[in-house]
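Lab notebook page, bench 4
Experiment: in silico fold of construct C2
Operator: M.H.
Input chain length: 183 residues
Purpose: comparison with the prior construct
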Amino acid sequence: MKRKFGRGEDAAELEIVDNSIDKSLFVAEDDDALTVDSRPETVVTSKSTLIDEIFAYLNMDFESKGYADAIVQPDTHYLNENLELLVRDYQLKIDQARHKFQEFLTELNFHINTRDAMGLTEVVEGLKAKKTIVTEHLNFVEQERTDIANNRGKIERIKLSYTKGFKRGASALSNSFITSSNI
């Protein structure tokens, strides 16, 4: 590349050599180019635990469910069947959690014993901390099983909430009937 420097007739023409390095040797600009990290983007989602699932069930709006069910069928037999289903659904969640916690504790004990034999003290301490948490969760689940069998605790809340909603729904149907009649 040649350029003129200076003014008028005294201007000198110099050749400038471009010693720059071609960018394409080091950077690929097309869509198919490999990048340093060519793995797909990782999406981080909230991880739900068995305890979270149990509390999510307990936090359901049983009152609204009872209300809606009463609108469909305001019968005492229907109320009692639905209450029994809600209790059995909760018991199923509890039994599932109990099984998973017991299974996980068995695996944790294996890891604690084998890593302890390897002398991996910090790993063992981490595993023991996890075991403490899982044991507390298992104790919670065992208490819930006892409470369900004795019809007390959180299961009472489910039943009371659902029954309250069911009665409101049945009452709303009766009120609607009374106000819509032309007698």
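Observations: The helical segments are 50-58, 62-72, 76-117, 121-149, 154-180. Residues 50-180 form one domain.
Next step: discuss at group meeting.
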